[in-house]
Amino acid sequence: MKTEGETKHGIIANLLVRSGIVDAASLDRAVQIQTAKGGTLPRILSSLGLADEEKACATIADGLRLSYLEPDAVSGLGDAAMSLLPADFSRERLVLALGIEGGALRLAMANPLDYRTLQDVEFRSGKRVVAVVASETALRSKLERAVTGSAGDDTFDLFQEMTPAGEVEWEAPSDADPGRGGALPPVIRVVNMILSDAARVGASDVHVEPQENHLLVRRRIDGLLEDVMRIQRDMQNAIISRLKIIASMDIAERRKPQDGRSTLRLGDRRIDLRLSSLPTQFGEKIVVRLLDTDRRQLDLAKLIGSPDCLQKLRELLSRPQGMLLVAAPTGSGKTTTLYAALSWLRSSTKNIITVEDPIEYQLAGINQVQINQRAGVTFASGLRSILRQDPNIVLVGEIRDQETANIALEAAQTGHLLLSTVHANDAASTITRLFDLGVEPFLIASSLVGVLAQRLVRRPCTACAKPVSPAAEDVERIGGAARLPAGAAWKAGAGCKACGDSGFRGRLAVHELMYVTEELRELISRRASEDELREAAKRAGMRTLMEDGIAKAAQGATTLDELARVVPPDSSRVIVATVPAAPTTAPAALAAVADAGKQATPPTGPANAKVLVVEDSATIVTVVKYYLELEGFTVTVAADGNQGLALAFQELPDVVVTDRSMPGMDGIALVQALRADPRTARAAILMLTSDTSPEREEEGLAVGADDYMSKPVEPRRLAARVRSLAKRAERRTSPA
């Protein structure tokens, strides 16, 4: 049902009727003329004597919340603004480019709802377009008087804004028939811009994704995808074809996935490209992987970071035989780590051969073999052939199946050092992954020498990084404050132009190296569980991914929030017991923790002192638990008096921090119960309350509380009180 003032003729017509500029009957007449002869409704209404054109345009602008350009302002536009668009295009679409403001192109339009024109200008200019309403009469008058561009100009001068970051050259064939659409000059410039800009900002992948109404371009930077631009639908086939041409792919085949490769030369940089196509609902999707050999870090010492991990890894790489695996999900830098290992290993006295799919980087002094499924060269067949080439060291790009795994393990037993990758979450799950492939446990136990698991985490931007205290929720997500080292230099980026306001720029790897010991070989032989393998590796000195990440975050190289996002949780949590509380956010309390953390003193409390926190407010629990763990205490949490009493009898804490008012058993009753039982009678008790009256404090102290604090809790004062109480409890339990 139409509301009053609504017509069947669209948004602009409805605005004109609702505002009282024209009645519905007169508008119907104008629409009939518009349908037959074209033109804008304001100008037609003016020619019929039914409305003032400029007033109608101002009304449309107001209704659409756009700016309105009066005739005098249109007439006074200078030639500089006029030259931004070709004259033919401007006259055909009835638009005028007003200039670039705040990174956006302001475009005067007689029809601000002409989405096709908006998309065309946005696509060709690479700029966000902001529509400004102007009358058809004013625009036509200005355009007829203007002398800009040539009649044959078919591209935007704003392509100057889209030029690639340096001269772009292609090493792959790109001279296909221009009549197919992919080699039209504007399309070439757009594709060059997309790829060169991605290379400039350090993107690892570019995604070109057909959508229902447009073509979406995204790129992956530091592991995260971001939208770059939306291109009008009618340019889709030309852009997809151009990408396929530069990768020597079949542009006529659109129903099957394809792979291709090319090389982009950008100034003095050489960037290898891997392209893959995938038919989707709205057309072919293209993903381009950018491999910049100049920026690839192949220094093993810089890549690993941890001296202890580096030393053990070099010991494994120095062995004459055995299999060393690198484990991580896709896009976590496995290949880079292996290439860095080969760079460290290569020598004129060694024969190093690789079998890869694809060969990502060319390494001098190393024989690299490309997988070719059509020619019958698979990982398994390639590995068999390599073993007849007298190799010292063999790299297999990936162990994907049982056949490849068995050949690799047998090679590792016959005088070859074999390196490869496996898709697994951590070091222990790598071994169960081999079990799942059907490899015999005894074969793994006798051949495997080590597993290096890794993840890539983002670095704080060096341009805007500042010292911070970690947020309580981040500390909780990585396993508790007891895992945090003393004297840490936590940093986080505030966001700036250099990092695109993300606060991060660049990535580093965190590692977990499982050194296969005799105990581990025994466990592998009997197909032990992941947990058993992990615990045995930790007993042998393995530092988990999370532990390595925390150590690097403490040096300011990443953040705890980033670790929690990327690194899988482990079991190294130093918590005695925790009664679950309702999830909460506590901005004010966490801010107090951050402020106090800047001036935090090193832990001085008695060694291994236990603190029981009994509190029904999850906000206060978060603050108290976080700060006490930073001080070195082992903290147990209960949500009310009944749970607190049960945990007190179970854990026998040195200090109890309890709220006064709680559901069920309150703080007063809890203190009385603790003092009445010999097991807990000597515990030091600190009571928290929101009631600051002297009478309440006297009552708490009278029933047996040792100290009393008012809420909100100030973290430094709380820590000082608990330290004092812990020492008091220690004296109570010490022999006379």
Folded structure, characterized:
The chain is of the alpha/beta class. It has five domains: 11-64; 67-161, Type II secretion system, protein E, N-terminal domain (GMP Synthetase, Chain A, domain 3); 163-292, Beta-Lactamase (2-Layer Sandwich), CATH 3.30.450.90; 300-566, P-loop containing nucleotide triphosphate hydrolases (Rossmann fold); 587-733, 3-Layer(aba) Sandwich (Rossmann fold), CATH 3.40.50. The protein is built from 29 helices and 25 strands. It has a seven-stranded antiparallel beta sheet. It has a seven-stranded mixed beta sheet with strand order 14-13-15-16-12-17-20, with helices on both faces. A hairpin with a 2-residue loop joins strand 10 (269-280) and strand 11 (283-292). It is flat. The N and C termini lie far apart (91 Å).
Please name the defining characteristics of this protein.
single chain; 736 residues; alpha/beta; GMP Synthetase, Chain A, domain 3; Beta-Lactamase; 5 domains; seven-stranded antiparallel β-sheet; seven-stranded mixed β-sheet; 29 helices; 38% helix; flat
